[in-house]
Structures are given as C-alpha cells and as structure tokens.
C-alpha cells in the first residue's frame, strides 16, 4: 500500500474547485447546491453558536451508550453460545430468525415501546449493533485452536479462567471484526432514528434544516456526519492495530 | 492447499461454524435441520408462549406489546382481506423489492466494473482511493436530505441512495478479489495469450468471483435497509412507508405485523441469495476441494 496518493487528493481538490466555480457562475442552482465556501461558512456559524456541538453530543451519546450495551451483551452471549453447546442449540433458531431482519424495522416498534427520546435511540443502536458482535464472537470461539484449550486443560485451568484467559484472547481478532462492523451500523441506525423520529441529534438537525430550506446548513450537517463516520472508523482501526498488535506478532509467520 | 493467513485450527473451526449455521430452509436438509434445531424451536416456542401469557394477563401492557396471536392474526389479514389493495403486504412488498432491485443492480454493475478497473490498474486505484476512503464511512442515510434537495422527493432519490449504499461492499470486494488472483493463474493465462477483455472475462473475473459474491451478499442486506429508510422519508408506498404509517397511526398490532413481514422478507432474500450463490460458485467449491 502506498502511503500517499497525490493524484487522488488532487481529484478531490479539483472536484471541490469545480463545484465552487459552477455554483458561483450559476451553472448549477446555488439554491440547491451552494458553493463549498458558503457551506464552510454555515458550518462555522453553526459551530460558533454551539448548536452543532449540542446535536453532535446527542448523536455520539446515543451511539456510544447503545454500542457499549451491544458490545457487552454480544461478547458475553457469543462466548456463552460458543462454549456451551446446549445454549447454542437453544438460541440458534431465534438468532437465525432475527438476524436477517433489516435492523431499521425495529425503529417503529422501538418508538411504540420507548417513545421518541434518547432511550429509543439507545435501544435501536444496541439492537442493530448486537448481531455482528454476537455472531463474530461465536465464530471466533468456535474457531479457537483445540490445541490451546488442551494446553489450558493440561495446566488445570478451570472452565471460567480458560474461557477468559484463553478462549477470549484467541477469539479477539474475530470479536474486533464484529466490533468494527458494528461501529458503522450503529452510526447508520442512530442517524436513521434521528431522521425519522427524534427531536435531537445530527440526523434531526439535518432534516429540520432541509424542511426549513436552510440549504447550506443541510450540507454543513451532512459534512459533520461524514466526518464523524470517518473519524470513528479511523479511531477504531488505530485502536484495533494497537490492541491486536500481539496477535499479529504471534501469527506473523502464518501471514507470509 | 496453499498456506493461508489462518492456522489450521481456525480453518477447521470456520468450516464447523459454517456447518452449524447452515441454512435450515435448504429443502433437502429440512428434516435433519428440524431435528437438529428441535431445542432451538422449543426455546422459541416457550418464549412466544410466555409473551402471549404476559400480554393476556396484562403483565406486559397489551397496548404496547400485543399478544403474539393477535399480531399473527393481523399479519394474516394484512396479506389478504384489507379493503384497499394498496394497504396489503403484497403491493407494499413489491414496491420495496422493486426499488431495491433497481438500485442493487446499478450498484452491482458499477461496483464490479469499477472494481475490476481499480484492481487491475494502480493509476486508476490511486486516483479514486482517497475519495472512496472518505465517502465509504459516511452513513449513507445521511445523504438523504441532500438528495431531497438535489433531485426532490421522488423515487430517483431512493434509487440513488440505495445504489450508493450498496456500491461500496461490492466495489471493495471486487478490488480485493482481483488483486488476490493467484499469480500462477495470470502466468498461465499469459502463456495462452489471453489479453485485455478475454483475460478479464475468462480468467480474472471467475477467479475473483467468490469475493465479489461475498460483497454482493453484504450489499443485499444494506440495500434492503437503505430502501426501507428511504421509504420512511416522504414515500407514499413500500414497506418502510407502511410500517412507519402504522406506528404514527398508533395501530400497534399492525406495526408489529409489519416488522414480522420485514423479518420474513429479509429471511427469504437471504435464502434466495444462498441458493443462487451455491449454484454460481459450485465450480469453485469443486475446484478447491471443499465439499
């Protein structure tokens, strides 16, 4: 992989410059597609007024709480299902039936149960983020090298300690994959819930601006959401690289 | 088998896991699957009975959590005898699936085409990569308000957003698949003087197909989700529109019934995809020695 791609960044620059020029020259209707400079101005005004930070905090708060809930539930359930065949057999049908359901279908039911506030958003995020974490943990546990478990048994590690000290670390690359997939799913769900039915958060702010025809604010809001998605992803990749560095070290000879 | 990135135990476990989660609706294996899933079905049934009892005895508020049997009865009605045909599941489901199919096919054509190009050419890959890196983590639903401004509230907005969301998994998997084609295959192809389109069509595309199909599978789920969200904003038909209308009209049983219908749609689409995948990739399983 090459670290820099000057041509690619030049393309982004050229697209932005073309957009700016087209909007200024009236080639596209600036009422619907304002120039990037005007969007930047609107973004700055929103940020300076504190509105943007408020919505950002609401979105990130629901995202983080729902995601944390899903991570705890998903990893522990996945570990249990992977280690105990009876529990796996009991829950597999329910998981198989619920997993293919498009997660946004839970939003209207969540509104019935929790109303329009933050608990609804948390629930929706936790529900959608649960499945990738749960299934990847399960696959990870099932994929643990039997040799490791035999070794743990030889050293007379109890079931619980073996699960926490051997199985969980051995399954962690799978778990990390599940957690990474869920990062973006959780963001999609929180934005959707805010777009469709909420009074706070970036999704709501963008929709409200669109309905009030405050066009530059729509773009400024969407830009903020895009940057949030980008940063969350980058943050996760960096964390994953650090936390799983030992794993690459252990398996390096396999990866050649 | 070549040395992969996975230690032997992981590979075995992976196959095991896949077998344990094999689709229970594959017709030939249905009886066997039922027996193996007996405990799972029993657990599900027990849960539904508890739900029913809790709701009937008002332990759970039946206004918020109606009894299962009521939901199922409503579900049945919504399939059949509503006074207006536009209120049945049939028309709503067809509307959603149609939108989804158009956007999905557009994403597949664009994703595979661009992916082949980017996988083969460093220059093209370098040109588009930063743009993709920035657009890909953007939650696609966030673009709906922008598209409402640009193309209005019609179906065009929905098709664009579905195609956009479904594009990335297909594109990235295609690039990966093309770059992962075994060098020996390319050498052999060169020996037989395959070039240009013939090389792409006869060697590279088939070799990358398993990975492309994996991308298509991820995108199928995404396309359905985004189709529903796009229908929740300003549509006049489709299951996404329908389920939100039921909730807003406080028709609680209908809301739950619509969720059951969406689960069913997801389940059927997934099963269909697995069936097609099995057929399309049969040669691949044979040539790599997987059962």
Explained architecture:
The complex is a heterodimer of chains A (256) and B (291). With 256 residues, chain A is mainly alpha-helical. Chain A has a single domain (49-255), classed as Orthogonal Bundle (MetI-like fold). Helix content of chain A is 81%, strand content 0%. In chain A, helix 2 packs across helix 10 (215-243). The longest helix of chain A has 38 residues, at 159-196. Chain A is elongated, with a radius of gyration of 23 Å. Chain A starts with 5 loop residues before the first helix and ends in a 5-residue tail after the last helix. The mean pLDDT of chain A is 90. Chain B has 291 residues and is mainly α. Chain B has a single domain (67-283), classed as MetI-like (MetI-like fold, Orthogonal Bundle), CATH 1.10.3720. Chain B has helices at 8-20, 30-36, 38-56, 68-79, 89-120, 122-135, 144-151, 155-179, 183-191, 196-232, 239-248, 252-280, 282-287. Mean pLDDT of chain B is 85; it is low at 1-22. Chains A and B meet through helix 1, helix 4, helix 5, helix 6 and helix 7 of A and helix 1, helix 3, helix 6, helix 7 and helix 10 of B.
Spell the H/E element sequence of chain A.
HHHHHHHHHHH
H/E element sequence of chain B: HHHHHHHHHHHHH
Oligomeric assembly: heterodimer
In this structure, how is the largest beta sheet of chain B organized? none
What is the residue-averaged pLDDT of chain A? 90
Question: Which word captures the global form of chain B?
Answer: globular
Q: What is the CATH homology-level superfamily of chain B? A: MetI-like
